[in-house]
């Protein structure tokens, strides 16, 4: 009896840790940074954080869907840069709405290519998106001559630079997209199918789910999110150039993985990705407020993602053991 109770408590603690541990970690991190520098919770600082991290957050929404199906997308950074370049290029002489729409369509186009290569050509997602990343980056460099495009039209910066009562439009859009993504995953048939495909692709196919279409759709959405993120950045800066933010791919993947979405697929949630973004943003801003060397920042980020992967592997292992013990 005592042994059964002990085992039950252990399972419950593990479940609570797996479910809410990342949220507790974010709260602790915020407390530590605030103690180090009380200006962290200043309204202006928080709004600046939301504006700076909006592109990464938008891309993380698409990446979450891809990873939930067991996929991977390394091309998001290249799509992001090319979309920003296209938005700036078109925006110099055309209506900003046309420029923004074209940039998002660019993202959808290359997302479709990724989806087709992964599902129809059956090329490994890692290799596929690595290859398309190089190709897309090359296109951006050819189009720009590896130079920056500057947009002088004030209307172009409305989306990225304007604020409503001090709240940046980009921050509002980020929260809206995260909420919409969470609703889709939790309450729609599409969301349930994504989890099913990530959990067991073959079983999902036998159950009537069009697995190829589901997987391809996540790459298309990821491309669209990257295109929108590129629009955000181009509008914020009123300019764009190839290799706009070399670290953004790392930040996007880290946000999703640190948030607790499993690289094996089938487990995760949009709120987890939101918390992962919060952790990275808090770390980055906290480092700057506390004058931590950029070199140490890179080391700490690397340790965090390795730690997150280790925790993911451990929890997956425990989950498999629990399933085996129940089935006996």
UniProtKB/TrEMBL annotation:
Alphabetical keyword list: Cell membrane, Membrane, Transmembrane, Transmembrane helix
Entry-linked InterPro entries: ABC_transp_permease
Subcellular location: Cell membrane
Membrane topology: Multi-pass membrane protein
Any one annotated GO CC term: plasma membrane
Pfam families found in the cross-reference section: BPD_transp_2
PANTHER family reported in the protein's UniProt record: ABC TRANSPORTER PERMEASE PROTEIN YPHD-RELATED-RELATED, RIBOSE IMPORT PERMEASE PROTEIN RBSC
Name recorded for this polypeptide: Unannotated protein
Taxonomy of the source species: unclassified sequences, metagenomes, ecological metagenomes
